[in-house]
Design a protein that fits this description.
The structure holds two protein chains of two kinds. By secondary structure, chain A is mostly helical. Chain A has helices spanning 23-50, 53-61, 63-104, 108-130, 133-143, 147-155, 162-187, 190-198, 203-214, 216-232, 235-240, 251-260, 264-290, 292-298. By secondary structure, chain B is of the alpha/beta class. In chain B, 31% of the residues lie in helices and 24% in strands. The radius of gyration of chain B is 18 Å and the shape is globular. The chains are: A mainly alpha, B alpha/beta. At the A-B interface, helix 3, helix 8 and helix 9 of A face strand 1, helix 1, strand 6 and helix 2 of B.
């Protein structure tokens, strides 16, 4: 059937020289998508225009802000490492639970139990993502006032101390890391591990030698995401760790404290530092991904 | 030898019951059947990747029903080959030997020997991502044979290959059989593949394995449907894809 035929009812003829253009479609998409990108670029530009190098230098000279930068770097890094430490096994288990119900166990009841446990754990892991941050902080505060942990705090103070900052950051950031790792492992075919088992591996060896190397990009993404989430965490830290200067002050609390005393210039300068840190992490992630073929060839 | 008696396995809501199958030492049996008939599930049960609910599996005279996959002495080539994407071709082939803690020089000797046999020596430094279908299949086969398994299980090994590569692989499989005493169970949809490779053709149908006699599978193939039916007669199938047993 020829599309040029004007007699075919199913394929109406077009006027010659009037080809339909895709340009309006792409312009419409660009306008819709671009509005969000412009919004982000605009508020970063507003921060940059509001502040000056002098404000940034003044902020960097302040001992409180320098302490806050140091504590942020340390606590975010610890929270990110802890998050990935938990997210890798949890993401792996969540993504492989279907194998147990799919035939790894002889007992149907075990398969059903595994599926039920998976659904429960999956839901629990999502709670920090959907919970208001203040509620997460309050819940942590209540937990650490409960009897066994209150006793522990006599030896190792947590609440309103630096450990509380790390725990608050970890509590939220880990959920995002778990999500990332679950998706990562779900995208890796379990078939490679199964082949490794037939080649003489134990499950542990198959995990370390096959699954984990294949998940390296996901691990990098989960670490970055957890670090960035930790850096931006404020609500849980405020409630659980407090906002004491030179003690539990991280960059997000610095912005709050500077704003509360009307020092807008310092607050914007610190905000800009946080934006720079976030962009630096994202650039590092992209560079690490781009450099992967190089490191492979070196290896 | 592969000997299966009264096997029952489950894959989700699907299950195979009362499967009996026997393949003699050094034989190549091709297992055919419709999509969803449980061919892959059966291979996975033999490998130890699926829990056996009832029945027994003997490989080389050993009851392996409840042994770990690592202890069964099988080589497995899945349909998608499942090459280890983070390793070079050399490391893929060497994997079974590294796990078994072979000496480094012995590993190198064995990998080079297999690579030469498979005609993939020039690929040893490459990653699986850049390999063609035929090359990937040769690597998967070399990897499965590296540990000298007694039984080789192939899941539609030639399904995604062009005719030329397929013919090359027929020759390669014939060479493998000449040089190694391995017992092969090959799952396929393709009747031409069965004819080229098999000493015996088995059909998995309605949870039962039955054997097609020699005259059956060497019978005429319907040129339009490539479909083999009972008694060696062929007929067009309305629902089965070409090359399937109907």
């Amino acid at each position: 059937m020829s599309c040029g035929s004007s007699t075919t009812p199913a394929c109406p003829a077009r006027r010659p020289g009037k080809a339909a253009s895709d340009v309006p479609f792409f312009i419409a998409l660009t306008i819709l998508a671009g509005s969000y990108v412009v919004l982000i670029a605009a508020f970063i530009a507003a921060d940059v225009l509001f502040t000056s190098p002098g404000h940034l230098l003044a902020a960097l000279r302040s001992p409180e802000i320098r302490y806050s930068i140091r504590l942020s770097l340390v606590s975010c890094s610890i929270a990110a490492i802890l998050s990935v430490w938990v997210a890798v096994p949890l993401g792996y288990l969540l993504s492989r639970a279907h194998l147990v119900s799919g035939g790894l166990t002889r007992r149907p009841i075990t398969a059903r139990l595994v599926q039920m446990m998976r659904a429960i754990v999956d839901t629990i892991v999502d709670i920090p993502i959907v919970l208001p941050p203040l509620v997460t902080g309050l819940s942590l505060l209540i937990l650490f006032q409960a009897a066994p942990l209150r006793q522990l705090q006599r030896i190792f103070p947590v609440t309103y101390a630096v450990p509380a900052v790390v725990i608050a950051q970890f509590a939220v950031a880990c959920a995002f890391a778990v999500r990332t790792m679950t998706v990562t492992f779900a995208q890796i075919s379990p078939r490679t591990e199964q082949v490794a088992l037939t080649l003489g591996c134990t499950r542990r060896q198959a995990f370390w030698m096959v699954a984990l190397p294949e998940a390296r990009r996901g691990i990098l993404a989960a670490t970055t995401l957890a670090w960035a989430r930790s850096l931006g965490e404020f609500g849980p830290i405020l409630v659980f760790a407090g906002a004491t200067r030179m003690r539990t002050e991280v960059l997000s609390t610095t912005v709050f404290l500077e704003l509360s005393i009307g020092n807008l210039e310092a607050a914007i300068a610190v905000s800009l530092m946080m934006i720079i840190a976030a962009v630096a992490v994202l650039v590092l992630l992209r560079l690490a991904e781009a450099a992967e073929p190089f490191w492979r060839s070196v290896a | 030898m592969i000997c299966i008696r009264g096997l029952e396995v489950r894959a989700g809501s699907f299950s195979l019951r009362g499967i009996d199958l026997e393949v003699a030492d050094g034989q190549c049996a091709v297992l055919m059947g419709r999509t969803g008939s449980g061919k892959t599930t059966l291979l996975e049960a033999i490998c130890g990747l699926r829990a056996v609910i009832a029945g027994t599996i003997y490989l080389k005279g050993r009851d392996v029903t409840h042994l770990r996959p690592a202890d069964r002495g099988v080589g497995y080539v899945p349909q998608d080959r499942a090459l280890f994407s983070t390793m070079s071709v050399f490391d893929n082939i060497a994997f079974a030997l590294v796990v078994r803690r072979w000496d480094r020089h012995a590993i190198r000797r064995r990998v080079l020997e297999l690579a030469e046999f498979m005609g993939i020596t020039h690929l040893l430094d490459r990653r699986p991502a850049g390999l063609s279908g035929g090359e990937a299949q040769r690597v998967a086969l070399a990897r499965a044979l590296a540990g000298s398994p007694g039984v080789l299980l192939l899941d539609e090994p030639l399904s995604a290959l062009d005719d030329q590569t397929r013919r090359e692989m027929y020759k390669l499989f014939a060479d493998v059989r000449r040089h190694t005493p391995v017992t092969i169970l090959d799952v396929t949809h393709n009747l031409a593949e069965a004819r080229h490779l098999a000493d015996r053709v088995l059909v998995l149908e309605n949870g039962l394995v039955r054997e097609l006699s020699g005259s059956a599978y060497t019978g005429r193939i319907d040129p339009t449907e490539n479909c083999l039916c009972e008694g060696g007669q062929t007929q067009a199938s309305a629902s089965g894809p070409p090359g399937q047993v109907c």
